[in-house]
Amino acid sequence: MAKHFLFVAAVAAVALANVGSANVASAQIPAYPPAGYSPLLFDPTDTKYVFRLNGTPWICRGDTFCKPLKIEGVADRDLPQATIEPLGFAGPRYFLSYRQANVAKGTEIALSCIEERCSRLDSTVGDATGLGTYTVKQGNRAVTRTAILRRLEAKNGRAQLLWCTETDCSELPLTRDSENYLSYMGSGRADGRSLAWLRNRSGAVLSCAQPEEGTSDQIVCEKSKIVLSDFPATTPVAAAAPAPPPAPPPAASPPASDAERAALAASIDRAISSGDFLTAGRQLADATRRYPGHAAWPPLQQKLAKAHADYEARRLIAEARRFAQAGDFTHAEAMLAEAEKQDPGFAEIAQARTEIAALRTERGQRYRERLQYYTGIDQALAAGRLWEAERLLAEYTHRFGQDDEYRARANRLAQMRAGGDQQARINEARAHIQAARQAWQQGNYAEVDRQLAAADRAAPGFPEVTQARADLNRRPGLTITIPGLQLPGSNQPPPAPRN
Known about the structure:
Layout: H1 2-18, H2 24-27, E1 37-43, E2 48-53, E3 56-61, E4 67-68, E5 70-71, E6 83-90, E7 93-99, E8 109-114, E9 117-120, E10 126-138, E11 141-152, E12 158-164, E13 169-171, H3 173-176, E14 182-190, E15 193-200, E16 204-209, E17 220-227, H4 258-273, H5 277-290, H6 297-325, H7 329-342, H8 347-366, H9 370-382, H10 386-400, H11 404-418, H12 420-441, H13 445-458, H14 463-472, E18 478-482, E19 485-487
Parallel strand pairs: 5-9
Antiparallel strand pairs: 1-2, 2-3, 3-4, 6-7, 7-8, 8-9, 10-11, 11-12, 12-13, 14-15, 15-16, 16-17, 18-19
Helix pairs in contact: 4-5, 4-6, 5-6, 6-7, 6-8, 7-8, 9-10, 9-11, 10-11, 12-13, 12-14, 13-14
């Protein structure tokens, strides 16, 4: 009813502004849909509907009042002149592309929106295309994801394939791990799956889909059997035009200037500083091939190797601290030992070992008396940390035996474990663990971290999550083709910082 009222009011306003008094009678009959209306996006799962009316974007939610969209950094008066296209939705979030002369110098940007508020997805600009919205099963519920193909303005159209959830967007391995130039061709159903087709510069056609329809939390692109000829030339050559005279033999290339080498070295240094190790590695390989023997390359090779080793060591130290906070000091020490292999002598490892030893001593001193154990067990049970409660009960019976207080708390733990809610949490955690192991096999380590964090939230302290975290932190090595350089650690670049 509210939406109908809004449409009628909007139509009446448009009619009054455009007709004279002689046409009042005809203006009282509203057109449906109203003039100036165009749809943008409809999400039946979350019941949101985005459209434009006379150029202004609106959102309607169920039977509530509709509201005009507000885009951060954009004046309301500029919205009707902008080009706005839908990119998809994921849970409560939805995504739009926006282009207007007063924003980002007229280049296209991607927007992330919640309710009527939209802001830039990130600082990157470039043409964006939605590849479709996908369903992913998580435990007993289904969630939505969106795939977006973006052609980066700052990198001459290099492609970026994004997988967007209700909280963030991550770049998929197809474009994150190699340089690709892709264009969108279309989407549809084939072989019982939703597919999006992309074309690369060589003419090969890629088909992109979930490995398991409705289950996998990513899409994977594979080369199809289709190969297309290149695009036609933009300026056709006249048939009657005489053949051009033969070109003179190419002159010898002038020697590279110091300025060119300095610019290349600066670009490599920026890539290392920003944590983009694969780009830095590719640039270094190209630099050593084009300008062999230049004095700037060996120091940059050493800096790249050191930066990557530091990154991997810090990641493992963070995991060690996570294990220590959960009371799992065995796995914490294993993570520190792995960090030492990655980056021998790294000062932060010794600092973390000291902090974890202090935490272990503090934990030992905290549980010296019966009352302290009672308090710790009760707090763990109240917070749903059943496995922490189980560890404390085991320590208690080792020191004090199985008295009435022990049996009362052990019975309470057994009752909580037998409850249907706890079993659902365990099943959800196992589903996330399985998804993490699949992501590890595909080399998508950012997705591994995300799935394990979700498993932690579903069942805090679940031993299978702890074991999976320890297993999946053993990542295969990375080799970048640079003479004399092999980087340890992950074969992926570091995941993008999370908001």
